[in-house]
Amino acid sequence: MTQRLHLVFGGDLIDPSETVFKDVNDIHIVGMFADYDSAHKAWKAEAQRTVDNAHTRYFIAHIHRLLDEEQPGSATAALGA
């Protein structure tokens, strides 16, 4: 069985219509999750907690896609890993 890792993170954006963080040192790392459902629950909790701030946005990153070295053109292959 393939492990599917998901990272939930977020923070304040310069412009709510874009995905550029004001300060990458202030990015809130919620955590790493072994399945999408758990990651989605964590994402939803943080998104609801910060709903009054239009500049704060949370994301789910599919880390397992970055680690798939069998896929041509994957991020790790491009880095020569």
What does this protein structure show overall?
By secondary structure, this protein is α+β, with helices and mostly antiparallel strands. It contains three helices and three strands; from the N terminus they run E-E-H-E-H-H. It has a three-stranded antiparallel sheet. The longest helix has 14 residues, at 36-49. It is globular, with a radius of gyration of 14 Å. It starts with 5 loop residues before the first strand and ends with a helix. The relative contact order is 0.25.
Task: Compose a concise summary of this entry.
With about 80 residues, this protein is an alpha+beta fold. Helices cover about 30% and strands about 25% of the residues.
**Helical content class:** 25-40%
Tally the beta strands: 3
In oligomeric terms, what are we looking at?
single chain
| Overall form | globular
Q: Which sheet architecture does the biggest sheet show?
A: 3 strands, antiparallel
Order of helices and strands: EEHEHH
Total helices: the number is 3
Strands of the biggest beta sheet: in what spatial order? Answer: 2-1-3
Coarse structural class: alpha+beta
Topology:
Elements: E1 6-12, E2 28-33, H1 36-49, E3 56-62, H2 63-67, H3 75-78
Antiparallel strand pairs: 1-2, 1-3
Features:
81 residues, three-stranded antiparallel beta sheet, alpha+beta, 3 strands
